[in-house]
Design goal:
Layout (H helix, E strand, L loop, with lengths): L3 E2 L6 H11 L19 E2 L21 H11 L2 H4 L9
Amino acid sequence: MNCLPHTTRPDADNLEKFLNDALNGVMWKDDSQICWLLRTKTITAATTGEYIVYVAEMKNEAPDYEWILQEIKENIRIEDAIKPVEDETI
């Protein structure tokens, strides 16, 4: 996959905050419940943005990072969601 880092505005943390707040009462009671997340912001050939949201309830104990990584590998298919950039000079 040849998606390039998107290093200009909008800031990824601002996009993330907007999405987290917008999903209050839809995906979770309040975004304060989010305790672990993975974020990337890339340039693709698409002219519109897209978010992939995968939610899993975690036990109230020390995080099992092996389980988290396995959940990501099994449930989030980045290659299927992103059309790669064809011109690498962007």
